[in-house]
Sequence to fold (372 residues):
Amino acid sequence: MKTRGAIIRSTPGTYEVVELDLDAPRRNEITVKMVASGICHSDDHIAKGDHAVGVYPICGGHEGAGVIVEVGPETTGFEEGDHVLFSFIAGCGKCRWCAKGMQNLCDRGAAIMTGGRPDDPNSFRLSLDGEVVAQTCGLSTFSEYTTVSTDSVIKVADKSLPLESLCLLGCGVGTGWGAAVNSAQVYPGQTVIVIGIGGIGINAVQGAAHAGAAHILAVDPVAFKRDSALKFGATQAFSTLEEAADVARALTNGQGADAAIVTIGVTTGEHIAQAFSSIRKAGVCVVTGLGKMTDVGIPISPMELTLYQKRLVGSLFGASAPSADIPWMIDLYKAGKLELDSLITQTYTLDDVARGFEDLHAGLNLRGVIRF
Fold:
């Protein structure tokens, strides 16, 4: 079938909308008519060339939800009309990591930047004028229709729920929430610093608040984002980490924050080092922000690491198991315990995708969403 999608022809580049050819689903695949897609900084990293991908052109988008229009042969558990959202990391359910409940580290994540199938990086479903087009994370949610592996799909049982809001669970919400709840393991009474209040950081604030942190110190140079953090559970907001770190020490008899969570859109080693310095003895610094793949080095003191017994932890997709945690988050949303609707600052048409990224860079959105 034909579909319209936003692609990057080469990097660095700008997303442009073109007509693409989309293959029908094969075994253990479905074709989905998209309802909504989040505009995530990770897609901008691809456009800027911070992250190299295996094939260009590539159709963007990895945070989305829609309705199944076709089910591949010998594919069980799904039918036409089902509401679904995507996990940007596929889960096979069988590898060592999935078996241990660490689905975010599934071996099929190795194919995430190839643009092909999670189980076959050399197999593609999109093309342009006979030329292969990669799918971001095997999903390409910046397309009106997409064919995906069922390993990347979460069914939404309650069809009354708005897919425009639920689509955010496929990346931004789970990554930020899990960074606080799973990776930092925040518990009641703690002091937490969140650095960078975008689509990830705002949900780290939500997660820390849900976990019972007494003091949540949000850091962002943009006033709109600082104000937003206060609405989502932050107790104070600052324009610099230095200010937040001073307050954390004042609140803890000079010790420092229990946890610092780095969710900056383009994270550097210096950012991580500053966050690491803001935590107490035996505290944890969680890094979920991404930077350039070629950047190397974090300027922290080995003596500080050892003698203060501090922990530096990476966090991919909030250290979650999407097939279990996304349905759990849907239940939290239904119960009014997780805010999704007001995370969406602005909606865009597919043709406005480039403007969505301009607004992201201008600091105007917590999350921009493409509405199909």
Observations:
- The chain has a mean pLDDT of 95.
- The chain has two domains: 2-170+340-371, 176-316.
- The longest strand covers residues 29-39.
